[in-house]
Amino acid sequence: MRTLFFISTLLLLAAPLQAQVPIPPGPPILLELGTIQYDPATGDGSVSMMMTSAVPIAGFQFDLVFDPAAVLLVSATGGLAEDFGYLVDVGSSSGVVLGFSLTLVEIPATIVPGELTVIAFNCGGCPAGAPEICIEDPIFADVAANSIPSDAGPCNTAGGGSLYLRGDCNTDGSANVADAIFLLANLFSGGALSSCIDGCDSNDDGSLNIADAIHLLAFLFSGGAPPAPPGALNCGPDPTTDTLDCLTPGPCP
């Protein structure tokens, strides 16, 4: 009963806590790597491009740089670009991705990270893990063709690390209320430590604390932001560098 009361209290706190989180200073647009999937047997992979934007956009361009370099871009599909009817083209060997609207339809501001597009690629000469991927030279424009300042998120780690679900703290293959309970038990009542600590770090701030439980519960029950990439729906490597690790992830859905 004490655990249920504690969770209920956290849910009540989650909404006002989210409202009080300030938007960090910096350029109004951030482009980051999202979920990365890779099949070493075929060399086929994909990476979702996540955009956080304080302003609407009417076009974008960026470069994807791979290591090893023997990667060919195949296509760009899905995401906000497809939802708003954008034409998105990829340079197979150049790594350039270009998206625009012939009718100047704007993609609205996305304060919560949204999937801009998903890039499919092939790497016949890559090792067992996914290649290192970096975003370079992101360019965004408004309907008046003015450039909008932007930043690129960090590269992923070559080899990709463990593939896991963010929020799956108890490593059962899904992110749900049991994961919040598991984390709270570890933090406050001597419960077991997860074998995939990165999966417990729901907000991906590089540390485990009560904020991760609040973040996950807010997502599950009150429309809060989803767990940080790789997200709670598809397995992927950790796109950020921190001291946390995932030694034994749960099964992928």
SSE layout and pairing:
Blueprint: H1 2-20, E1 29-39, E2 44-53, E3 59-67, E4 72-77, H2 79-83, E5 87-90, E6 96-100, E7 110-122, E8 132-141, E9 147-148, E10 150-152, H3 177-188, H4 197-200, H5 210-221
Parallel strand pairs: 1-10
Antiparallel strand pairs: 1-2, 2-7, 3-6, 3-8, 4-7, 5-6, 8-9
Helix pairs in contact: 1-5, 3-5
Q: Biggest β-sheet: count, sense, barrel?
A: 5 strands, mixed
Strand elements, count: 10
How far is the N terminus from the C terminus? 31 Å
Helix content: 10-25%
Indicate the radius of gyration in whole angstroms. Answer: 19 Å
Strand content: 25-35%
Calculate the mean pLDDT score and round it. Answer: 85
Structure description:
- With 253 residues, the protein is of the alpha+beta class.
- It folds into two domains: 29-157, Sandwich (Immunoglobulin-like); 162-252, Type 1 dockerin domain (Orthogonal Bundle), CATH 1.10.1330.10.
- 21% of the residues lie in helices and 29% in strands.
- The protein has five helices and ten strands, in the order αββββαββββββααα.
- The strands form two sheets. The protein has a five-stranded mixed β-sheet. The protein has a five-stranded antiparallel β-sheet with strand order 5-6-3-8-9, with no helix packed on it.
- β5 (87-90) and β6 form a beta hairpin.
- α1 (2-20) packs across α5 and α3 (177-188) runs antiparallel to α5.
- The chain is globular.
Task: Summarize the model shown.
This protein has 253 residues and is of the alpha+beta class.
